[in-house]
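Continuing from yesterday's entry. The apo prediction looked reasonable, so today I'm repeating it with S-adenosylmethionine included to see how the binding region is handled. Same sequence as before; SMILES copied from the compound registry.
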Amino acid sequence: MAAPTDRSISQSSKHSFEITGEGVIIDIGTGDGRFVYQSARRTPNKFYIGIDPNVRPLAKISEKIYRKPAKGGASNVLFIQAAVEDLPAELNGVADEVHIHFPWGSLLRTVAAGEVNVLGNLRRICSSGALLEVVIGLDPRRDRAEFERLEIRELSLQQIDEVLAPKYAEAGFEINERGILPASEWPEFNTSWARRLQQNENRPITYFIARAI
Ligand SMILES: C[S@@+](CC[C@H](N)C(=O)[O-])C[C@H]1O[C@@H](n2cnc3c(N)ncnc32)[C@H](O)[C@@H]1O
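Holo prediction written out below.
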């Protein structure tokens, strides 16, 4: 298996999509911050902001970024404690890319059920033309209880096109690309949850990429 990289679906050659050059990349539900940290180390001309209401898993990496670059430091990283429902106004219009990888809880409900008011928060932090990438790794069988608890429908392409796309449009996003990949075709992700979930052979990945309009 190839070594993981910081590439995301919007940056992979297989699912190519125009990407922003330099700019500000925001990762919502950043978890332990791995994607942000590794990406920032590899791409020093971009500025990365990781956001999560639960900061405990970020403790180690938050210290590491202040080291000298040769010792693992990264001055182009910022971590913020916040939920998607309550993003700071200082982020308004700042993002050139927003990533949401393997969300759970209310973040999952926001993106998978298309909660227009909270999607509006995501739009608020985007610059015009910014990209929003959502990657979901739900297993329809194993995660049935989670689907029911969060009152989300199974994520078929039809559901994305007919139900989610209009809700995203209402919030100011145009879904330009979407897909469902079998476990065998997962692209390389550099997030901790990608590593965990990838071990389940039956877990497909559902993704969509939207542009802020
Ligand atoms: C399964 S983890 C994924 C972490 C990371 N993106 C990864 O791929 O390794 C889901 C993350 O979503 C965060 N989360 C849940 N609800 C959220 C919300 N309302 N706003 C922002 N983040 C949220 C959780 O705290 C958790 O860190």
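Comparison notes:
- DSSP finds seven helices and seven strands in the chain.
- The longest helix spans residues 157-171.
Will overlay with the apo model tomorrow.
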